[in-house]
Amino acid sequence: MRLHWILGLGLLLLPSLAAAQAESTLGTIGAGVANQSSVPGPRWTPPSGPAPRMANGRPDFSGVWDHPYVPDMAASNSANPALQKGAGQIPYTDAGQANLQAYDPEKNGDYTGMCMPFGLMRSVNSPYPIQIMQNERYVALLFEQSTWFHVVPFKAEHSADPNPTWFGESIAKWDGDTLVIDTVGFNGFTRLDTRGNPHSDQLHMVQTLKRPDAGHIAYTVTIDDPVYYARPWSNERTFTLTNGDLLEYSCEENNRALWEGRIKIWTPPTSSPIRPK
């Protein structure tokens, strides 16, 4: 098991400056070598041939993928910009700027410190691998982060009134050889990244995945939330195939740091404190 309790919760509750510093120390994770550090023998080299295809002719994205840790979706990867291209200047509305400025996990807590679901974007942004499983009816994202999973049906339209959830309601479509995952129906409780970039329950998130060769995925995500952002904005990154497997991630809800006060208790928006202070 990884030292998730120390690394995972610690990184996800760091202020933005510390998170940016942490990104540089985790650069090798994004470079596709995270699962090799304790494996003896030759370094794994991702395949470079044509992308595999399923029986129906569609690209097959199945595999365990290393990817960049993205604590701030505005910033690009300083060591390798081709690995992760940030949005640059994020177009906040006044409400978005105020929300971000008010975000203080050390003072007010953060839901990740209580082992609540990270949400879809923050799970993709975490430093741990993602496994993709795919058939003609579904594509499933299995996150090593907190052992979350998200199953996405191939479907033409969203539900008329999606049930608000932490990860939202996703549907998958094909645009040629590009896999498009379209998500709405968020509960608005989560944040997009470690920095604390917010989103509301009106978030519409579109992820695209292309497989230019057997060893890589070209990934983009577009954030469209009229409450906190004046216009849609995007982030691009590269996933790299690994020869490892997902490892167990255990987040302990009653961890000692939480109850001793080093991690603050988080209260969901518009709700009462979980216990009296």
Give the key terms.
10-stranded antiparallel beta sheet, disordered N terminus, single chain, about 280 residues, alpha+beta, globular, Lipocalin
Walk me through the topology.
Layout (H helix, E strand, L loop, with lengths): L3 H9 L3 H10 L1 H7 L29 E4 L17 E2 L8 H9 L2 H4 L11 H6 L4 E5 L3 E6 L5 E5 L15 E7 L2 E7 L19 E10 L2 E9 L8 E9 L14 H4 L18
Explain what this protein looks like in three dimensions.
By secondary structure, the chain is an alpha+beta fold. It has one domain: Lipocalin (Beta Barrel). The chain has helices at residues 4-12, 16-25, 27-33, 94-102, 105-108, 120-125, 256-259, and strands at 63-66, 84-85, 130-134, 138-143, 149-153, 169-175, 178-184, 204-213, 216-224, 233-241. Strands 1, 2, 3, 4, 5, 6, 7, 8, 9 and 10 form a ten-stranded antiparallel beta sheet that branches. The longest helix has 10 residues, at 16-25. The radius of gyration is 18 Å and the shape is globular.
